[in-house]
Amino acid sequence: MSFIFSAWLSIKHVIEIALPFSHDALHVHAGLLIFLTALVLIRQPRIAWTLCLGLAAWNEVVDLMAPYNTFAPTDFWLREAGPDLFNTMIWPTIILVIIKCRKDIRH
Questions:
Q1: Cβ(91)–Cβ(34) under 8 Å?
Q2: Structure pTM?
Q3: Nearest to 92 by CA among 55, 26, 43, 48
Q4: Chain-centre distance of CA 98, in angstroms?
Q5: Full pLDDT tens readout for the chain, 107 residues
Q6: Positions of E strands within the chain
């Protein structure tokens, strides 16, 4: 496994231990934080959403390749990655839809 993957797994482990949130809540908070940060910096909602999705997917790929993963790839995507991606992307998606609807109403 590459250095970047190992480093990210170590960072995630520290975050999971340090913060008093459940695994699912961490995904919700991380998705919202990444999306809002990207939105403030980039000011393009679709690009911010895409960046958030890309980082969430990359995180799941790293989890799939982690030495502690005991699931077969198909089971992993259904049991682990699917719910994680949903939790990570739920608020960025809702916010993106609200932004899009507000722009449609204005014009």
A1: no
A2: 0.86
A3: 48
A4: 19
A5: 588 888 998 999 999 999 999 999 999 999 999 999 999 999 999 999 999 999 999 999 888 877 776 767 777 677 888 999 999 999 999 999 999 998 877 76
A6: none
| Residues whose CB is less than 8 angstroms from the CB of residue 13 and which lie 6 or more positions away in sequence, other chains included | none
> CA-CA distances (angstroms) from residue 67 to 1, 10, 45, 71?
9, 12, 35, 11
Report in angstroms the alpha-carbon separations of 82 from 6, 10, 56, 57, 97: 22, 22, 11, 10, 21
Residue 28 CA to chain centroid, in angstroms? 8
Helix (H, G, I), strand (E, B), or coil: what is residue 43?
coil
Q: What angle do CA 56, 62, 67 make, to 5 degrees?
A: 150
